[in-house]
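Input record (Table S2, row 276):
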Amino acid sequence: MCTDLQGCMRDFQRMVTIFEEALLEYQGDAHLLFTGDLIHGPHIDPEDWPDFLGEYYRDASGEVMIAYAGLAAQYPGRVHALLGNHEHGHIGGPHTAKFAADEVALVEQILGPSATARMRGIIHTFALAAVSRCGAVFTHGAPAAVIESVADLEAADLSGAQYASPLDVLDTPVVGKILWARSATEAEARRFLRAAGGTISIYGHDVIPEGFECVGDEQIVVSTSFGVFDTNKVYVSLDLAAKYRSVHDLRIGHEILPLYPDRALARLGGTARALK
Ligand SMILES: [Mn+2]
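Output record (manganese (II) ion complex):
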């Protein structure tokens, strides 16, 4: 699983390589999960690029979305994506304003009507959460939503049609929290996990410059791409037949892996040495 590519084609292609290596290693029995915000990256010239955003790249939202759909078609049932707050803006949610006053309008203008319609069709296939028998529950944002069961996630209305303003979505107890929450208390996470039938919560949405952060025994925030330097980008590889009781069962070099091992710092299981 990986998080928040935000239109970075290079990191998308790296995840495809990792997935295809896993398919070879496990005789086709592997899954790839993107936990939302595949789209909406920077439209910034190299000379204006702020250092804290990591290595330079230019937004390729449309290309990433088409590549995702192609990969999902190539490997039916094995490639999955969750809705992020950035995708949600294209199908009824509030419009995000990270790199433009209205990123939804900007990307749709760049793509034109027919590619926009295709992108919306792809986004409509994205789920709000993914649940696995190994105990991991995946969402875009933190597990702060109040649900009784997975059925509450499946029944959630994403259209925004019932709100006076798309911004009202932010205040809803299910969709607003899953797509926008940056943190959850231990009690919130435990309640959410109990309702979803899992033991650990894995999500992105926020930038963790060090690559990942464990919160208590139940939560881990993962940063695969956006806002992170190549040395610190990580993805998570799980054995779906295992049982993970706490996020401390996830080990660096086993479940927590560097996106670019030859560039990653040794503390993340990489081979590169830290520059003094
Ligand atoms: Mn997000």
